[in-house]
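User: Please predict the structure of the protein below. I'd like the answer in structure-token form so I can feed it into my own downstream comparison script.

Assistant: Understood. Taking the following sequence of 265 residues as input:
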Amino acid sequence: MTGSAPPDDQGIERLLPTSGSLARGVTSTVPGTIVAKSVDGGITVGPRAGRTILFGRNVHEVHVCVGGDDRRVSRQHGTLISDGDGWALRNAGRSPLRLPGRLVFPNEQPYPMTPGYTPVFVPGSHGREHLLEIFVVGPAGDRPPAQHNGITIAPALWPLTSDERLALVVLGQRYLMHEPNPQPLTWQQTAEQLAELQPTAGWTAKRVEHLVAKVRGQLSKAGVAGLVREEVTGPLGNSLNHNLLTELVASTTLVPPDLHRLERR
């Protein structure tokens, strides 16, 4: 199929690479609608029996380009197939796709996508993983009930400086990759990777430790539990940083697309 255009382009709404993470939801409320996005852009597509969305390395053959600069990613690595109501993921590449809690192998039966947000990691070369975000609108349209008189809830996102965000993405990259039982990197591992990303920024293990401790203190004062020594029983270990990263990911302050910050410009 080299050089061929992806089929069935009608009814597809294109998303720019600069559009936000799907982890924070989508605008469509039509049940069965799917939104798929990578760092190179994406699409919104309504449900229709037999409709197929292609993703992979060759931008000319797919609807969503994933890993365009990585030859370990297949030119057409996978498909999303609609039965008219929901969608299923099929691996058409040469290496398994990683979803939270499971792998989808080549030529395996299509895996049904659950409503809501699912990050799909496509393995690449030298340990790289390329993120394909998927959001399927549920049968109720994922529209919450009216809360006209409800108490206003403060925004869940925690403010971070650019240095704090970069350091925390490096420290907590295993959480953003949805690895099972993730743990933070060590201060030294984090500092070494930051120094590779920003050779002239003066990153050291002590600087990372002080920066992260500052963020923990700010969130602790705002009411987040488990971020100070007095609140953790038993051996301390990585508990404080684990609790911090869990909160930042759960609040979508840090989201899988932040992993692009780990690539040198």
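That's the full token string. The first strand starts at residue 12 and ends at 15.
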